[in-house]
Amino acid sequence: MPLAVDPITAFQLPEQGSSFAPHYDLLYAVLFWGSVFFFLVLIGPMIYFALRYRRRPGEPIRPTPPHLTHNALIEIAWIAVPLVLVVALFVVGTVQYIDASVAPANAYTIQVRGSMWSWGYTYPNGVESGVLKVPSDRPIKFLIGSKDTIHSFYVPAFRLKMDAVPNRYTTWWFQPTRQGRFPVYCAEFCGDQHSQMVSAIEVVSPEEFERWMAQKLKEMQEGIPLAELGRRIYTGELPRGAACLACHSLDGSRLVGPSFKGLWGRQERMQDGSTVTVDEEYIRESLMRPQARIVEGFGPVSAMQTYEGVLSDREVLGIIEFLKTVK
Amino acid sequence: MTTEAPAPATAELRGEPAPSYLQEPRGLWSWLTTLDHKRIGILYLISVTAALFVGGLFAMLIRLELISPELSFFSSTLAYNQAFTLHGAIMVFMFVIPGIPAALGNFVLPLMLGAQDVALPRLNLASWYFWLAGSALMIGAILAGGIDTGWTFYIPYSSTYSREGDAVLLALGGVFILGFSSIFTGLNFVVTMHKLRCRGMGWFRMPLFLWAIYATALLQIVATPVLGITLALAMVERAFGVGIFRPELGGDPVLFQHFFWFYSHPAVYIMILPAMGVISELIAVHSHKKIFGYRAIAFSSLAIALISFLVWGHHMFTSGQSQVAGAVFSFLTFLVAIPTAIKAVNWVATLYKGQIALRTPMLYALGFLFVFIVGGLTGIFLATVSINLHLHDTYFVVAHFHYVMVGGTVMAFLGGLHHWWPKMFGRMYNERAAKLGWLLVVGGFIWTFLPQFIMGSRGMPRRYATYNMEGLEVHQPLHLMSSLGAWVIGAGMVWTLCYLVYSIFKGRRAEVNPWRAVSLEWDVPSPPATHNFPIDPHVDFGPYDFERIDEATGLIRPGPESQRLLAAAAVKTLPPGAEEENSG
Amino acid sequence: MSAPVAQTTGTAAVAEAAAEHHQGHHPALQHHFENLEQQADAATLAMWLFLVTEILLFGGLFVGFAIYQTWYPELWHAAHKKLDPVLGTVNTVVLLVSSFTVAYAIRMAQLGKQRATSWLLGATIALAGVFLVVKYFEYSHKIHEGLLPGAAFSHAELAAQFSNAHVFFSFYFLMTGLHGLHVLAGMIVLGGLLWKNARGAYSPEYFTPLEMGGLYWHLVDIIWIFLFPLFYLIK
Fold first, then answer.
1. Contact yes or no for C19 and B225 at CB 8 A
2. Minimal Cβ distance to C12: which of B236, B557, B569
3. Number of independent structural domains in chain B
4. What are phi and psi of B20, to 5 degrees?
5. Residue C232 pLDDT more than 60?
6. What digits encode the pLDDT tens for the residues A173-218?
7. Complex-level ipTM beyond the 0.95 threshold
8. Which residue of A has its CA nearest to C161?
9. Topology at the third CATH level for domain C35-232
């Protein structure tokens, strides 16, 4: 149920298309009207004083009485009140931000890949598409990367964007609130055709999505599904450096490294005391920079070599998809 | 011998002013080799004004293109990309950063301190030549094809994908050298303020402009070297490829952004703090009332300078930094709002029961408050990290920083220029012409950038050469409005230049103290003599003790202590034998 | 009518200073300073601020180095073995001794021993030369082995182990190279001081430029003191 905002704020914002947008718009409205209030509180007296206290020609200059040169109460109030307000804004804004960046566990994950100057999409089953169709009945998570320079994946209707950075995944997710077509733009300057780097998200009914997906799957009979690709790399069927299975068992037994039985979504304790929820970026980081974070009990340094430059992006994704299936 | 020093003062008392710094020595060469801070200030003023107009020209070209959703004015999107890059780079590095400190600051800082010059005059001149050299490289970059990377030079676009490689290298080199120019100015000012304050000039007797310049100078010293090394690395990456930033060589492009913004966020305050300082002067002087909350304003400058080092990550909320980093940077960014709010309320409170003269400098100060408060409040939107997700890299951000940089810095620059113009050139500009200029600049500014907030929040991304695609063509009316406003600003700027230059030749002669101000630059002739003060000054009053002005003459009345000491000095200096006594 | 008013500000004390100003004071005193002490204070503060900017310039590289070291510790460890700790140690000692000689040169200037000052400055420059010669041999060895930054990297053994082994050498050449440029600049500065000292420009009353040059040289030394363990002594 979308939360209503007043028409003046609504005029400033594009149509809503995600479950995040109504919350966003509400906070925006609070900021907007709060700003109008503070603007008037400062500018009203400014204009009044400037007109009221004009100096008449030849009027002698009066000494300024001490009570007009400083007032600790006003200064403290003007520290305390804004401080309380910004702390409140900080809390609300940060909670919203974390909601927007941490996807629910059941989110349907689509890889977004920016390149000069188009967007490409890869579905969990390995289907690659230049058109982004998503079903309206579930949360959708985007895993955003780039082939060349930095882009930014931006959908105004959802109030969300995130940069597409080479050698890194970023992410955001959304829950569709209605079916329709929502433009996608590139928001980070990426060269000549930056402004033409457009796409669109088509939110369709689950039935229509299934039909479309079945069609797509048929089209790529040749291709290996991602999880299968990952399994082959993991076991060494498809050689890519040392096989993962050599050090990481799938049955819970301890080898050189931790077992990956039931790895996906697990909370891992790191040797520096922090905990990490195993997600795409963590797996990717572990492959590319094995020393960055080490699971408690396997330190102090990892015996693992980096797979930077060894694995293609699709192969990394394959390993991720495969690890999701290891219960 | 001893009577020689006070001699100019007595000559001036008889109405025969000593030759001004503008007159003696003569000739272009004497200007190009001058060590006089006032002349260096004027050299800077001419240079940064030229940069302002060149940067402004590129802005006009950008706005011409954006009248229509299709590519219409430029021959290619590349040309558009070069135009906005050059607009940004020239405005930021060649105008806004040096504008107030190096041009206005150089002229008034030693005068306000009661010093004869800055501590390191040769370094001061070197700073201007570094500015010229850096700017020459920037112009070289234009001639070499024009950079199209955006003024932020983000890697890997600048290192790998931009086809204008030579131009990128030249521009990076240019900004690197401009950075040194900025460091030299800041370093010089800090040393001058520490070591050359005249007798009686305690830290809390300094005009607030100097506090702002001090905070700025610290930022220049501490932040700019990091930009230097970052740009040097970017040059090496572009030229050789060393793989520290370039992702295809195993580097991390986000690291470049961290380094870049570690400088460039404090740089935002290098741009705005001096403006705040100017506004403090203008509001106090033209209200003829002691500034409200002197210490609060002074310390808030330092607080802003300090916090500004801790908020660079707010430029990267959407670049994939961790949620924790996002939250921390958001919180720290909010904290900047506090000292800024303190300044705003103190300025407004100063007007209360003042004796306000609504002359051009004051109008610019009020215009500043109007637009700067909008700029500041929209900054709160952007600091709210969830709100930032949608607004980042849209026209909302463009409008926000123009409200702060143009609405803030340019208006303070113009206000300060009008305020000190009589002192700089000894001539009054035409007040009515100036008010018309103010109306055009302030009105045109609001007209141009207010629509951009709405475009941005409705989802128009920035740095778009065209907007004829799905969902964006609806912004055409707002773009058109913005483009029309740009012509009004342009007209205002040209008009301002015209009447100011005209006044140098035909303006009414300025009094020593036309505004009835009490900081020391208003205690020397307009324009000042080459040697700032015939004898080293001694102050026994604060910078806003307006009751010390003698209404009849407009001059500052000597206090009881000064009178006693003056009399003593007269007795002491008159007898011919006095020099033996004094020389020990 | 306009009667400008330096007189508000005039005092006996200042009049004295103004008088002194126009009398036979030290030729090195600039017009806007009251006395040599104030001038030296200003120069010293300026120099320290300049050193701050230098440290921050290197600071960017140090931070980058530290970040990459935490990302790729195994690479850092393997790559540092390609550096020669003996040559590194020799250069450290050379620079430490040169810091001593320049400090002693200033002491001699304070005591008015002009010749000793010149000899010590000369020794400092010579030691700086030794440092650069050693660096030259180190560099040519690296270049010969293909241990080069970025795309130029061609060391087969390291390349087989690490996909981005060149990054270590990017940092190595950038940081020691920038330091080397500072050594070169220091030699030019010290050479200028030596020349002026030989012409008798400095005395026990006035030796500020020597102090400034010395401060700069100590900075060059200290930066090396940090570079040496960071590159050569990785555990």
1. no
2. B569
3. 1
4. -80, 170
5. yes
6. 999 999 999 999 999 999 888 998 889 999 999 999 999 998 888 7
7. no
8. A305
9. Four Helix Bundle (Hemerythrin (Met), subunit A) (1.20.120)
